[in-house]
Fold 33 kDa chaperonin.
Amino acid sequence: MAYILRATAANGDIRLFAAITTDMVEEARRIHNLSPTASAALGRFMTVASMMGTMLKGERDTITLSLNGGGSIGNMVAVSNPKGNVKAYVSNPGADLPLNEKGKLDVGRIVGVNGFLNVVKDLGLKEPYVGQVPLRTGEIGDDIAYYFTVSEQVPSAVVLGVLVDTDISIKAAGGLIIQMMPGANEFLADIITFRLQEIPPLSTLIAEGKSGEEILNMLFDDMDLKIYEKIDCRYECDCSRERVERALIALGKEELQRLHDEEESIQLECHFCDKKYKFTKEEIKKLIDK
Ligand SMILES: [Zn+2]
């Protein structure tokens, strides 16, 4: 089970999202066979994508986060929707690094900072919304906070945590997005920064069994906290044979003809869920005729 809480505090001056995504990240780890450091990196990325998905308004809207900071993990992509469901992949799931000097999984270094974070929102309009910011630390949370503040002009704090167990399964994963609404008292941001430094790491709290409600209460119980929605979410891929066919058709007649002439059959694999789609010579011929 994974879920997102939506809440407000300080009479609506603060907008809050809290996510518990342990099972969702474990599912991604299992599908992609992620190393511990890759689990932490993609887990943080998926968790924030899931929360950002629930900010979308239209039922069919999607948000795609991608980045490549030049680190050994390569490309990371996470796609989410208003239900907070996520699919994600990395180009090098086996990439791994020794722990950093703080004894933590070295997400910043496996991601790198020589590149950009891209945010594409498909809101069903002619053109998608596209935002891009340079990577700051590669730790994901800081990079997303920078995106919100600079690109969407919403000052935000983003806390993301993934704890990998000794057997490399995911012990805890989750996140918080804390956003200042226009006109909010500027002291609020300082109070929140102070409180975030006071509490134990988010992944520790989740591993101890704290719920999203309890974590929000630890931070905002004296600030008129109102939790108004709980959204169950999961890892979900929406690939289908029809989609794969459309992608093949998009290759063009010549390329399909070449595949038809040179191959007995072709097999395509979905990046997001590793599902395999096989096409025989006859089936490729049918696509050419389409
Ligand atoms: Zn798939």
